[in-house]
Structure formats: C-alpha cells, structure tokens
Amino acid sequence: MRHRSAFVLEAFLPYRLSVVANRASRLFARRYAEAFGLSVPEWRVLAVLGRFGGLSATEVAERTAMDKVKVSRAVKLLLDRGLVERTEDAADRRVQRLAMTAEGARIHAGIVPHARALEVELLAGFSPAEAAALQAVLDRLEARLAEMGAEAAADGPD
C-alpha cells in the first residue's frame, strides 16, 4: 500500500509528458537518421524552416522549444552540409535569416511522409474523437503553460 504523501514520479504529469515525448522522438529519429543522416535537433530545424521559412536562429529556438546552443549547433551542421543557407535580413542587418537550400528541401520532403506515417501509427489505437480530444488537451496544456509563464525556448525532448 502506498503512503498518501509518497511522490509517484511515474504519475507526475510533466514527467509523463517528457517520457512520452522522448520515446516518440527517439523512435522517429531511428527511422530517419540512417536514411537521411540527421539528428533530432537538425530535423527540428529543417521541419520548422519547412513550415515557416526565413526564420532567425532565435525564432527557430522559440518555435522548436530547443535551447539556443542546441539550435546553433544544428544550424552549423546544416550549413556545413549545404541543407540551409543564411541571408542578411533586409530590415535589420544584424539578423541572419535561415532558409532551406534545394537539397535541404529535398531531404525535408523525404522525411515528411515518414513523420506523417509515424503519427498515423501512434494514433492507430485511438478513435477520431480520441485523437481530436488529445490534440485539444495538448492545446490547452500549451495555453496553460503560457499563462503560467513557461518559456517556449526551454530545451525540449530529444
């Protein structure tokens, strides 16, 4: 019998969210890493550039919930591989905008079907109503975290 004051880590919501996110991220990474040679942070940078394009490294960090150092390392590797390019912002010369190169876009386009397939596979045991409810709960959790002052740029799961 559990003591009423015992802290049950595996029932603690932030811990459970982190474990689930880490496991899903590692599973996905195993599926694309060998074929495309990208790490999780590199894929996240490409994914956010594929969705929004023309972002600064700071904006990438905010949108991916990765810390700036991790984003910086991933961007450097992607630049070195010729998958992203950096251009000066027309309005503010201090800001460097990132965009995928043609090769980066090709790799992104190759990974996206794997991402969609993983999502379908993850939700295979859910009814459409349950999948929609899960999305709604996650949206509410994100909104609540923002209300509580949680920073989006904190390091996310790998």
Report on this structure.
The protein has 158 residues and is mostly helical. The chain has one domain: Arc Repressor Mutant, subunit A (Orthogonal Bundle). It is 63% helix and 6% strand. The chain has a two-stranded antiparallel ribbon with strand order 1-2. α2 packs across α3. The longest helix is centred in the first third of the chain and has 24 residues, at 13-36. The chain is globular and about 60 Å long.
Question: Can I get a quick summary?
Answer:
With 158 residues, this protein is mainly alpha-helical. It contains six helices and two strands, in the order H-H-H-H-E-E-H-H. It has a single domain (10-147), classed as Winged helix-like DNA-binding domain superfamily/Winged helix DNA-binding domain (Arc Repressor Mutant, subunit A, Orthogonal Bundle).
Protein traits:
158 residues, mainly alpha, Arc Repressor Mutant, subunit A, two-stranded antiparallel sheet, 6 helices
State the shape.
globular
Q: Give the N-terminus to C-terminus distance in angstroms.
A: 35 Å
What name is given to the CATH topology? Answer: Arc Repressor Mutant, subunit A
CATH class: Mainly Alpha
Largest sheet: 2 strands, antiparallel
Question: In total, how many beta strands?
Answer: 2
Number of domains: 1
Unreliable parts:
153-158
Order of helices and strands: HHHHEEHH
The mean pLDDT is 90
**CATH homologous superfamily classification:** Winged helix-like DNA-binding domain superfamily/Winged helix DNA-binding domain
Q: Which architecture does the CATH hierarchy give at level 2?
A: Orthogonal Bundle
Structural class: mainly alpha
Residues in helices, as a percent range: 55-70%
- Computed Rg: 18 Å
Strand order, biggest sheet?
1-2
The count of helical stretches stands at 6
Strand content: 5-15%
